[in-house]
Amino acid sequence: MKRKGGKAPRNPKEPVVRAAFARVLADLREKAGLTQGQVAEKSGYEEKYIGALERRKHTPTLTAVIQISNAVNVSPLQTVELVLEIMPKFAHLEVKF
Asked: What pTM does this model have?
């Protein structure tokens, strides 16, 4: 199933993970009192990439999860746990092949 203007996800759960990570990232960033630009600077990524993650345009790599978690002063393990905790809220986004 192809999305409008993009490639089909490689895994049916990819949209679920993207949505959950986007929510967690935005929440952690706001709790840390940081802008997307500040997270980008601290993590070594471009502000555009941080914004794309928050808009569900990209799936983060493990390296990105680690670096971004450190930038918002949270352990990568805690970030992943938070993502796993809220994934059921986005189950409706799962792609049916």
From this structure: 0.88
pLDDT tens sequence across 12-25: 899 999 999 999 99
**How many residues appear in the chain?**
97
The answer as to whether 9 is a domain residue is no
For residue 5, being part of any structural domain is answered with no
Domain that holds residue 69: 14-87
Is the residue at 95 inside a domain? no
End-to-end Cα separation, the chain, in angstroms: 6
CA pair distance 28, 30, nearest whole angstrom: 5
d(CA 9, CA 29): 26
